[in-house]
Fold this sequence. Notes:
Elements: H1 3-15, H2 18-24, H3 26-56, E1 60-65, E2 67-70, E3 73-77, H4 83-92, E4 96-104, E5 109-111, E6 114-116, E7 120-124, H5 128-132, E8 136-139, H6 144-149, E9 153-156, H7 158-164, E10 174-177, E11 180-188, E12 203-207, H8 208-215, E13 225-230, H9 236-250, E14 261-265, H10 266-309, H11 311-319, H12 324-364, H13 376-402, H14 406-411
Parallel strand pairs: 7-12, 9-11
Antiparallel strand pairs: 1-13, 1-14, 2-3, 4-7, 4-13, 5-6, 5-10, 8-11, 9-12, 10-11
Helix pairs in contact: 1-12, 3-10, 3-12, 3-13, 4-9, 10-12, 10-13, 12-13
Amino acid sequence: MSFLLTVSVAIRALLRNKMRAALTVLGIVIGIAAVTTMVSVGTSAGQLLQNQIQSIGSNFLVVQPSQQRRRGVQSGSMITLTDSDAAAIGRECSSVLASSPLVFGARPVVRGNSNMQPREMWGVGVDYLSVRSWDLDAGGFFTERDERAGNCVCVVGYTIVRQLFPAGNPLGEQLRIGNIPFTVVGVLGQKGASLTGDDQDNIILMPYTTVKRRLQGSAFRDVAAILVGARAPELIETAKSEIQQLLRDRHRIPPGQKTDFEVVTSAQLSELFGTITGMMTALLSSIAGISLIVGGVGIMNIMLVSVTERTREIGIRMAVGARGRDILVQFLIESVVLSCFGGVIGLIVGISASVGITTLINNVSPGADWPVVVSLPAGIVAMIFAAVVGLVFGLYPAWRASRLDPIDALRYE
C-alpha cells in the first residue's frame, strides 16, 4: 500500500468525525498558542529593553555609593562621592568622554495657576547631555558660568512644556521650583516612556550647584551619583576599570579592601534585565507547554477509542492484504495530522494574540511604544514539538491496532 494512499485513508477517517477531531486538537491549539504568545511577548519586552538601553547610551556608566550592611542586613548607602570625584573622572580617565554629578532636587513646580510634581528633578553638570546622548529641541543647556555661580536656570522636558506652557515657547519664561524662580533656557528632545512605562519627558534639569545651595541649603560637595559616558561602547569595561582605580586612590582604599562605591554599566543593566525577561519567558512557556502534553494525552485517548471503533475495518483491511506496518503507519499519520492541524491553528491564534497584547499595551499606556515582535522561530519549534507529541502519543494506539489478529478483528461487533 502506497504512502500517499495511506495518508488519504487516514485523512478520510478523521473527516468522518469532525467534531471529535476538533475537540481532540483543542489542547494542542491552546498549547501552541500559549507558547507562541509568551515567547513573542517576551521577545518584544527584550527588544524594548534594548531600545531603552540604547536611549540612555550604550556607553553609559553610573558610579554610586555602595550599599552598607549591618549584621548582614542592608541599611542604605553612605555619602561617599563628591563633585570633585566627578571632575577627576572626566579629567583623568582616558576612556571617559564626559562625566556629570547627580543630585536630587525634587520640589513642587508652579507657574501661574498651574502646579505639578515632575517625575524627575535633577541637579546635573554641564556635560549631562553628552553622557546621556540626549539632544535639545530648543534653546541651549546651562553653561559652566551658570554652574559656578549657581544661577537659577533650568532645562525642561516636553511633558513640562505641555502642562505649564500650553500657550507656546517656554524659552526665557519663568517657573517657581519651591519658592525660587527659575528661568527656562532649553527644551529637551522627546524620549517617550521608559521600560516601566514612566514618562521620561516629565523631567527638569538644573545646575547641581544651584540645587545644593538654593534648594537643599547645603554647603557640602557630596553628590548622590556620578553619570559617566565612555568614549565608545567597546571601551566601557576599560572606563570602568579606570574609574575604579582612580576612586580607590582618591578615597585611599587599600588593595583587597571593599570599596565605598559601585560602578554599574549599561551592559550590566541590559544583562540583568535580559536574564530576568528570559527567565520569565522560559517559565511561562514551560507552563504553557504543559497544555501540549495534556493535548497529547487527549490524542492518545481518542486514538484508542478510534482503534476500538474501527476494529472490524482493520480486520477487513488485513484480510485483503494490508500488513501490520500499513495499519501502524495509518494510525500514526492520523495522530500526527491531528496534532499538526491543531499546531497550525494554535500558531495563527498565538501570532494574533501577541500582536493584540502589544497593541493593547501601547493603547493603554500612551508612549509605551512596545515593539510588535512575532517569534516565528518559536512558532516553528512549537509546530515541530506538536508533530512529535502526535507521533509519541499516537504510537501506542497505532501499535495496538497493528497487532490485532485479523480473524478476531473480523468477528468483532
